[in-house]
């Protein structure tokens, strides 16, 4: 330790020191705060039979066992020990000798030796060794970069109904900059779309589901979010060969127009129910999209497969909102984000953005209230997503959305200089309008989270924020 720079860190109820270049990123306090809340809600749901009123910081023989596979400083594990109720044991593992030395010192300094055990091992090998005799109720994977190499062992090592907490900071790959790399890491092709952050979440979920299916297991997402420079998913893992057969219907290929940005999802499989014999049959879709976009005649890019089922459990999100401790450093942000997530449409994957629609047609940008009112007045649903403050998530068909924009353009004509032949704008504006569109104010267009003045779309957390520099301490 001599000559090493000592950093003192205070977060939540933990007080730690790091010696040397062991990884710590203060921007991810939101990630850690939220994980504490999720684990508290999960433990209560996972162990409902417990007769003891649980307290944080106390060891319970009937409590949950947590593995933090990539612990670095031990901060997260120490926070779990001090802030999560109903814990039996926490294993804080890291492959770095210096990191494990830090972990041991910090465990002792925080007096959580009865709850937290330091482990020096390769994360993947540790999970493989534990998958038979010593499985975990919750496994936290928070790597620098992609979590893909840890998923095969994690889905085997988590207990029945247990929780995986998975982070990816691999956003350049997941958001469409390197589709070939995305396919090699996650088994899916990413696309550069305005909805790239949601597509990243759905690619990660399908990747976890794919790994789980190999062992007759499947996932149920509790919460999935995009924040700052990373994505984070919280999923429970169950075992059922029968339900694994439904996976094809939970995955879709994405057809994304290179001109106007419209998108269509094509499920990989369909489920058919026979009412006569009460049996379920699994089949393949027969729909064909043709070669070009029906709205602007431009070709499609094809991506995926992505997870097309819900990203969140509404019931679980309600539980989280009921239990968010106000003392947390990122309380206001958590409260705002969870409320927006609660309002998100669960069955409408991906989204448009306001600037995408107006920019495609080169027209004056309408207000969000006007666009949302038009969609609601048309009999469709609409919501924001927590990933983008100008997002339009809706079950309305793309034809209706472009009809809305055509009517808007007729009231706010574009100049001849901006009207160029053979562009998406001229093609879309040259088509007929089939739907009746009303921009009359609809009270439901103003969501409750906005009325309450919640911190829904926070600004960048720190100057020069980002994933930081990979740890070099070994």
From TrEMBL:
Superkingdom: Eukaryota
GO molecular function, one term: tRNA (guanine(26)-N2)-dimethyltransferase activity
SUPFAM superfamilies documented for this protein: S-adenosyl-L-methionine-dependent methyltransferases (SSF53335)
InterPro entries linked: SAM-dependent_MTases_sf (IPR029063), Trm1 (IPR002905), tRNA_met_Trm1_C (IPR042296)
Keyword Aminoacyl-tRNA synthetase: no
Catalyzed reaction equations: guanosine(26) in tRNA + 2 S-adenosyl-L-methionine = N(2)-dimethylguanosine(26) in tRNA + 2 S-adenosyl-L-homocysteine + 2 H(+)
GO cellular component: nucleus
One example of a Gene Ontology biological process annotation: tRNA N2-guanine methylation
Keywords: Methyltransferase, RNA-binding, S-adenosyl-L-methionine, Transferase, tRNA processing, tRNA-binding
EC numbers for this chain: 2.1.1.216
NCBIfam families named in the record: TRM1
Family: Belongs to the class I-like SAM-binding methyltransferase superfamily. Trm1 family.
Name of protein: tRNA (guanine(26)-N(2))-dimethyltransferase
Organism: Tenebrio molitor (Yellow mealworm beetle)
Source taxonomy: Eukaryota, Metazoa, Ecdysozoa, Arthropoda, Hexapoda
